[in-house]
Structures are given as C-alpha cells and as structure tokens.
Amino acid sequence: MAKRLNNQSTIGAVLQQIIQVNKLGPGMDQIDVKEAWRQLMGNGVNTYTKNVVLKGGTLYVELGSAVLREELSHGKSKIIKMINEELGREVVTDVVLR
Prior knowledge:
By secondary structure, the chain is α+β, with helices and mostly antiparallel strands.
C-alpha cells in the first residue's frame, strides 16, 4: 500500500479551504438550509412553501397558507433544532414565517 505524503490533502479538505478563502460559507449555508427544509418538511409543507431564505442566523420562510403558517409557528424551536441537527452545526437561530 502506498504511503501518503505530507504535502497531499483530501478532496474534502481542499474544498473546505476553497470555501474559506473565497468566503463562500454563507452561500453554502443558504443552499444547505433550503435542501434541509425540503427534506425535513415533506411534500405537504413544500407544496405551500414559496421561498426559503437564510439571512444571518434567521430563516425566513414564505408560505402560501395562513393555516399552515399558524400551525408551524407553534413548533419554531423544533424546526430550528431539526434543521441544525440535519446540517450537523448551528446555522439557524430563529425562524420567521411569512
């Protein structure tokens, strides 16, 4: 088996370095949060979801149903916890449902 040299890096480490150097973290978080919302909420909620935007640590979700918005507003802390667990890090600190 070949021995790994010190000057070699994994693809993941190189990509992380590129993200850090080019300050792409917030954009990557935006994409990751949108995908997590889509996966966690399922088809029923996604049908009424018009837009999902992450600004800072606040997740803004635009919904087309007032009833669904009211229902989800009771579980904001659970939504925050689920999304952060899905991403494996603390990205979302608040949810605003519109």
